[in-house]
Specification:
4 helices, elongated, mainly alpha, 77% helix
Amino acid sequence: MGVGIILSIIAMVVSAIVETIRRDLANSNTTVVMSAMWLVPQFVLLGLTKTFNAIGQLEFYYSELPSSMSSLATVMFMMSMAVASLVASLLTNIVDSVTGQGGGVSWLSSDIDEGHVDYYYWLLSFLTLLNFVYYLICCRVHRSFSSSESRLSHAVDKERFDGIEGKP
């Protein structure tokens, strides 16, 4: 999943750079000659992001849950996607409201030449970076929890084995 998050950061940075170039060309009072091919790199990166995140998340659920609860892993994955969509929609509404206050032009204006979608992409890059730091913290906590749990189960197994062998 970490690879997917890193790719997501890269995709948002690429999106911000492409949008900055597009906006500068649009505001230079010349004809904008940009192909839709400028969007291909960010869409490829976003596709890879979704792939790495989905596979990593499902693999984590399957490894942590008992096999009798494998259908719950799929449900948890789908629920996380639904929650992520709601959070994205909420974030879009908040950014639009906050940046459009005081009669100013919103970053997400319907006229993309007046708005600053590039700023929104930079914001998403930063939030995704924070998400990656949170992911690393969760990994560290999970690893320490898993290793202490593993040591405990090893001690219990050793105790059982010693009891079978008749050792004190």
